[in-house]
Structures are given as C-alpha cells and as structure tokens.
Amino acid sequence: MESPDNRYPSSPDASPKQSSPRKSPTRESMEKNTFIRFLVSNAEAGSVIGKGGSTISDFQSQSGARIQLSRNHEFFPGTSDRIIMVSGTIGETLKAMDLILAKLLTEFYMEDGDADEPRSKLRLIVPNSSCGGILGKGGATIKSFVEESQAGIKISPQDNNYLGLSDRLVTVAGTLDEQMRAIELILTKLGEDHHYAQSYGAPFPYAAAAYNSMNFGPNGAGGKFQNNKEERSTSVTIGVADEHIGFVVGRGGRYLMEINQVSGARIKISDRGDFISGTEDRKVTIMGSQRAVRIAEAMISEKIAASSER
Q1: Confidence of residue 28 (pLDDT cuts 50, 70, 90)
Q2: Which pLDDT does position 205 carry in this prediction?
Q3: Does 127 sit behind a cis peptide bond, omega within 30 degrees of 0 on the bond before it?
Q4: For the whole model, what pTM was predicted?
Q5: Residues contacting 61, CB < 8 A, separation 6+
Q6: C-alpha angle with apex 126: 42 to 71, nearest 5 degrees?
Q7: Which has the higher per-residue pLDDT, 11 or 142?
Q8: Which domains does the chain have, with CATH numbers?
Q9: Has residue 280 got a pLDDT over 90?
Q10: Which range scores top for mean pLDDT: 114-118, 278-282, 284-288?
Q11: Residue 238 in this model has a pLDDT that exceeds 80
Q12: 4: pLDDT confidence band, cut at 50, 70 and 90?
C-alpha cells in the first residue's frame, strides 16, 4: 500500500481511470487548519484505537493530526455507529485519514485471494449549512468531484426525526485512492466555508438529538407531537452518591449548565451533608416538563455510569 507521505501532497500521476489531470494542492492550502468527522462501527473503532491505544497513538505521531473518538455508548443519532474526528492542517488530516482507511480496508474489506482492490463506503458528517458548497449550483461541484476522484459521492437528505440534529451524511464510495482524492476535494472546499470552521467542537455534539431519540423512539414522533400531558410541570428527586456529585456538576458547573441547556429542566442539588434519609446520597431535584425531566435524568445517569467506569 502506498505510504501517505508519497500520496500527499499528491502528484498529477493519477489513476488511469480519472477523466481529468489531478491538480497538486498548493502548500498554502495544505497548511490550513481543518477537521473531519466520520462514522465507524464499534469494531472499526477498536481497530483504530489498538491495544492500549497503541494504533491511534502511532497514527497521530505519523500524521501530526489529532484523532478523537466518541465514547463506546455515544452513537450518531439513528445509528449504532461511533464518530471519529480528525483535526490538524489539511495535510496532516489527509495523512491520518489515509492511515485509518488503509487499516480498515485491510482488516474489514479485503478478502483472501481477491485480486481486485477493495472498495468501501465512508460516511462523513457535514453541517447542513456547508452541504450547499459541496453540491454547487445545479450540482456542478459534486459532479466535478465525482469525475475527478472517480468515487461515488452522495449527500443524504436532512433527517428531521431528531431534534437538535443539523448535520447530514456525505457518503464517499470507492477504492482507497478514490476515497482519498474525494476527501481532499471535499476538505479543500469546506476550507472555503467559514461556517464549517466555526462548527468545530467535540466528536459527539449530539446530546439533545440523542436524548430526544432515546426518549421519544427512533422515528422522533414524540419530539414533534407532544400532548398536553408531556408539557405539564413535574418534579423528581433522585439520589446521587456524594462522591459522584462532582461529575454531575462538572468543573465550574459546566456539565450541570449543559444539562440545563439541553433538557430545559431546572436542577437543584442539596447541600453537603443533606442526604436522603438512611443513605449517603445527596438529593438531586429535577424540575420541568415531563420530557425535560426525563432527558435531564438520563443525562445525569449516563454521567454517573461513565464516572463509575473510570
């Protein structure tokens, strides 16, 4: 397999299947900071991480890019797939993507005795506001990307079933070379969109969408058609072990603020030493609509579970 250092910056010697000469990206464009997010199965995520984090550490050292993954229970809404985010300069990001995709192709798509170069589908996560630039006027830009890369590129319709989800999936299908050329073209185009740069954040920014889908079912109907009972105010008090309160609150109250913003609920935590009778659990009172209370309670439970795993 061709090494990433030979492939990027790329030379005009493109695959003979390409219909137009391949332009070498300028040094200036390759040094722009960017990021890319895409979906992987749990098994593929494990492969990228490697034993004791050895593979991901090696890929970061080789490429200079930063590689982050959503946690093993954090899936893209409506799927059971985790998210990998690669960030750095465009050159570093492309090197890291080449390393990751080559490994996944070898381990999950290459069959013994198969002489043909393996093909796969990669699903990129792109903000809805940035998809217009990839499409171009009348689809001209995406058509030129397909012709130049020889990869199949398809943009999914926006999914309105999950409240708070403003991203779409861009599927890139082909061999490794075809996918990498398409990714290079897409990333370069996204680099021209200042809205894309502003959308940089955590690998898993879907708390609202995930909790809405969890509480209202996979089709999201409950999120759209709420009855009066859902909007009635209610109050629930749960017990949280004193040693876990810090995880619920977060540094400087950051996580507690996030729960408030995502769920819409108000949360009150009892003072130190004020425990639920017969326990050493602090009182956490959640107030708001039934929907808001359920979302907040689920977020608190998840945070406690994550802290317990540590």
Answers
A1: low
A2: 67
A3: no
A4: 0.63
A5: none
A6: 30
A7: 142
A8: 34-205 (3.30.310.210), 234-309 (3.30.1370.10)
A9: no
A10: 284-288
A11: yes
A12: very low
List the structure tokens of 3. 């090494």
- 226's tokens: 């709420």
Tokens of 277: 């009778």
How far apart CA 185 and CA 256 sit, in angstroms, is 40
Match 């017990």 to its residue by tokens.
239
Separation of alpha carbons 2 and 102, rounded Å:
9
